[in-house]
Amino acid sequence: MKIYQDSSAPNPRRVRIFLAEKQIEMAYEQIDLSNQQQLTEEFLAINPLGQLPVLQLDDGSYLSETMAICRYFELLQPSPVLFGKSPRQQAEVEMWNRRMEFQLLLNVAHCFQHGHPFFAASKSQSAEFAEISRQRALKSFDQVNTWLAARPFIAGDQFSVADITALCAIDFARVIDIRISESQPHLADWHHRISSRPGSSA
Q1: How remote is the C-alpha of 114 from its chain's centroid?
Q2: In CA terms, which of 31, 92, 111, 119 is 20 to 30 Å from 152?
Q3: 67: how many CB neighbours lie within 10 A of its CB?
Q4: Can you tell me the distance from the alpha carbon of 54 to that of 47, in angstroms, rounded to the nearest whole number?
Q5: pTM for the whole structure
Q6: Distance of alpha carbon 50 from alpha carbon 156, whole angstroms
Q7: What is the C-alpha separation between 87 and 40, in angstroms, rounded?
Q8: What are the pLDDT digits (tens) for 91-125?
Q9: What is Dmax (Cα atoms) for the chain?
Q10: How far apart are CA 104 and CA 126, in angstroms?
Q11: ∠ CA 39-41-43 to the nearest 5 degrees?
């Protein structure tokens, strides 16, 4: 097996951290987003959507979408559990992970795509939408800080894939000059603890 990725992008990093937490070794092949390598005929034959990451299985087939890849490995190697144990825990992890994806990571990504020079030549950009997304991302930082006042991890008492998603979103927000502020101590404490985990450097 191997994973096609761009090492600088947040979604491939989510998979790398997930696998590192499970101590699963993986081969990686770099697809350079800055050179639009994901839009080449060769890569589009692998994933017609031109998105990363993509897992190539041993039988030569492909699996894309970040959470689909993570769930595949969760089932292959259940320990440590990163999607929750009981039905209630699994539902809560799913809920919080989706919140981190749609309220945090997606707004950071939209601000980057619509406001950063990196995409100026390849995408139609809207400065207005970039600013709307920035404000939504800032609001999400505040919301996560409030939530973490009552819990050690995003989805409750246990580290989960929701923490991985939040970490990658918050770290990637640096490209649009959004950082944890002094008014967000719970988020800062959480970020320090999660960043200190060995898997977070994957």
Answers
A1: 19
A2: 111
A3: 19
A4: 7
A5: 0.96
A6: 35
A7: 42
A8: 999 999 999 999 999 999 999 999 988 777 677 88
A9: 50
A10: 19
A11: 65
Name the residue type at position 94.
Answer: E
**What band does 143 get if pLDDT is binned at 50, 70 and 90?**
very high
Tokens of 66: 């970040």
| Of 159, 196, 162, residue with least CA distance to 70 | 162
The count of residues in the chain is 202
17 within 8 A of 167, measured Cβ to Cβ: yes
Question: What is the token pair recorded at 27?
Answer: 């081969």
SS (H, E, C) the chain: CEEEECCCCHHHHHHHHHHHHCCCCCEEEECCHHHCHHHCHHHHCCCCCCCCCEEECCCCCEEECHHHHHHHHHHHCCCCCCCCCCHHHHHHHHHHHHHHHHHHHHHHHHHHHHHCHHHCCCCCCCHHHHHHHHHHHHHHHHHHHHHCCCCCECCECCCCHHHHHHHHHHHHHHHHCCCCCCCCHHHHHHHHHHHCCHHHHC
Phi-psi label, residue 177: left if phi above 0, alpha if psi -120 to 50, beta otherwise: left
